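Hello Y.,

Per our agreement to keep a running log of every chain we model this quarter, I'm adding this entry. I've kept the format consistent with earlier entries: sequence first, then predicted structure.
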Amino acid sequence: MDLSPSGLSNEHLTARTEDVVNQLLEAGSESDLWDYFPALTVASIALVVWELWTRHCKGEITLSQFKWMTAKVSGLKAGKLALLSVAMMIPGINVVTGAGLVASLLFSAAHAVKAVSAAKRLP
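Predicted structure for the entry above:
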């Protein structure tokens, strides 16, 4: 293929790979907030995409609308979670961010309880 050599030997590459594996083993089970970022992002996006797909199947939105909304929500959710993750890692701001998230969760739960109890009162 007429490629010029990289100048790195197989032994050198193997040693560097072993160094990376050793660092991973030394880190062990230590985790930080960024470890959860991919799973949270996928779960958050999947919930919205599922709802969009349901509406597409019902004929409420077209396929092109579904594609556009899926792309838009993917970017928005990933950006939001990245921003929240960064805010949770900054000392001082993390307390305010955490308090805001807890307050949002409590207000959402209270709204859900009110909606369920109102639905039960209807004949």
